[in-house]
């Protein structure tokens, strides 16, 4: 507990007037000095009452949504538990410099403010401090609100509404409730409609009827797609991460599982590590991609060996890939289909990918922008020609 600048000034004024009143024998000056010092006493009494009522106060932070998105506003509510606050208490909360924030607004249950993160990954909010005061602003004291906590911020994504028939890239396995014991001739067929898996086309019936026919009683389960991310630092990295995350979300919303191969930090203080996560829902995929970090220069082998040899479809996003990594990937046993989206400020970097193209990789180079412009066009130019064959 300590006096404020106003309280110190009042104490000095009251003491000075008291000394002068005693020297000159002025009763009015003495009364005025007593009034000033009495105000300090009232402030101390108010603070003591507030301190007793606020004993055991703690703050609980709630972020809405619980996973903020880069460049979008989110609300932060600090709810007070375990005690009551005085009417003149206020909150101080630490936020990183890359997080834009609004002023703190008091609420019946505590305080609220809004944040707008400028980067993905773990962002620390707090610790918070509750500052108690008195109605006159003469005395104040502080207590810890909470220790703070890291909040995971998702990267920005685009819906990629123009991409269709992505299942055709990987094919599908027969589901357990199919009828594998029946011969091909006994299978019931129907006419092909857009979106059907081309691997289920019944070619004998199609040749006989003059149009594509598919097996209708053999439901298929799509293969998991392998998505590989290799980024460096800089503005182009965030564009590459958003492109990667947008495609992963698009695949998952179509019911296609994905295996994400990234270099990431599992926690705010964790060391980078290569990891593989099989995801079946967009939220899990965004949690993984949000913590992706730059791949160390000596980890080319880890990136290359993350690709399973029997993978039906591999889609990689590289930010200015290193020649050593490209050479290793070119030697990886070729999966059914392989695609590489290269994010580079220099479009002439395509020449360095000739080795991958010679091994059957479909390659497209895109230039990053300050916003997400060009992501959907880049994916469409890379994937559409193959999907429409």
Describe what is shown at a glance.
This protein is α+β, with helices and mostly antiparallel strands and 389 residues long. It has helices spanning 5-24, 27-53, 203-209, 235-253, 282-290, 300-305, 323-331, 354-358, 375-387; strands spanning 2-3, 58-64, 74-81, 90-93, 99-101, 105-107, 110-117, 121-125, 128-133, 139-146, 149-153, 172-174, 189-191, 213-215, 220-222, 225-230, 258-264, 273-279, 313-319, 337-343, 362-366.
**Strand/helix succession:** EHHEEEEEEEEEEEEHEEEHEEHHEHEHEH
How many runs of DSSP E, i.e. beta strands?
A: 21
Which sheet architecture does the biggest sheet show?
Answer: 6 strands, mixed
Contiguous uncertain segments of 5+ residues:
172-187
Structural class: alpha+beta
Q: Approximately what portion of the residues adopt beta-strand conformation?
A: 25-35%
Head-to-tail CA distance between termini: 76 Å
Mean pLDDT: 81
| Widest sheet: strand ordering | 18-17-16-19-20-21
The residue fraction in helices comes out at 25-40%
Show the helix and strand layout.
Elements lengths: L1 E2 L1 H20 L2 H27 L4 E7 L9 E8 L8 E4 L5 E3 L3 E3 L2 E8 L3 E5 L2 E6 L5 E8 L2 E5 L18 E3 L14 E3 L11 H7 L3 E3 L4 E3 L2 E6 L4 H19 L4 E7 L8 E7 L2 H9 L9 H6 L7 E7 L3 H9 L5 E7 L10 H5 L3 E5 L8 H13 L2
Parallel strand pairs: 16-17, 16-19, 19-20, 20-21
Antiparallel strand pairs: 1-10, 2-3, 3-7, 4-9, 5-7, 6-7, 8-11, 9-10, 12-15, 13-14, 17-18
């Amino acid at each position: 507990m300590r006096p404020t600048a106003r309280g110190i000034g009042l104490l000095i004024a009251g003491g000075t007037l008291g000394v002068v009143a005693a020297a000159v024998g002025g009763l009015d000056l003495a009364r005025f000095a007593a009034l000033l010092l009495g105000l300090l006493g009232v402030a101390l009494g108010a603070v003591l009452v507030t301190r007793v009522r606020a004993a055991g106060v703690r703050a609980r932070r709630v972020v809405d949504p619980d996973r903020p998105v880069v460049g979008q506003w989110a609300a932060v509510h600090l709810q007070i538990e375990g005690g009551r606050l005085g009417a003149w208490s206020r909150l101080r909360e630490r936020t990183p410099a890359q997080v834009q924030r609004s002023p703190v607004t008091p609420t019946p249950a505590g305080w609220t403010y809004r944040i707008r993160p400028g980067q993905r990954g773990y962002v620390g909010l707090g610790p918070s401090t509750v500052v108690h005061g008195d109605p006159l602003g003469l005395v104040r004291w502080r207590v810890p609100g909470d220790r703070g906590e890291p909040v995971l911020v998702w990267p920005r994504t685009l819906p990629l509404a123009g991409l269709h028939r992505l299942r055709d890239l990987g094919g599908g396995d027969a589901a357990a409730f199919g009828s594998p014991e029946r011969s091909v001739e006994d299978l019931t067929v129907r006419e092909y409609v857009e979106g059907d898996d081309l691997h289920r086309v019944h070619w004998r019936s199609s040749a006989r009827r003059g149009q594509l026919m598919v097996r209708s009683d053999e439901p298929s389960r799509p293969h998991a797609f392998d998505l590989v991310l290799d980024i460096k630092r800089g503005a182009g990295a965030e564009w590459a991460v958003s492109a990667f995350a947008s495609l992963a979300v698009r695949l998952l919303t179509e019911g296609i599982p994905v295996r994400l191969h990234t270099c990431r930090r599992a926690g705010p203080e964790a060391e980078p590590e290569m990891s593989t996560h099989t995801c079946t829902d967009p939220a899990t995929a965004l949690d993984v991609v949000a913590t992706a970090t730059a791949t160390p220069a000596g980890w080319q082998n880890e990136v290359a060996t993350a690709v399973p040899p029997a993978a039906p479809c591999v889609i990689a996003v590289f930010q200015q890939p290193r020649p050593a990594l490209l050479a290793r990937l070119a030697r990886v046993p070729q999966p059914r289909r392989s695609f590489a989206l290269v994010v580079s400020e220099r479009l002439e970097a395509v020449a360095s990918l000739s080795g991958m193209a010679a091994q059957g990789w479909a390659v497209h180079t895109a230039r990053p922008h300050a916003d997400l412009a060009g992501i959907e066009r880049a994916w469409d130019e890379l994937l559409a020609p193959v999907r429409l064959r």
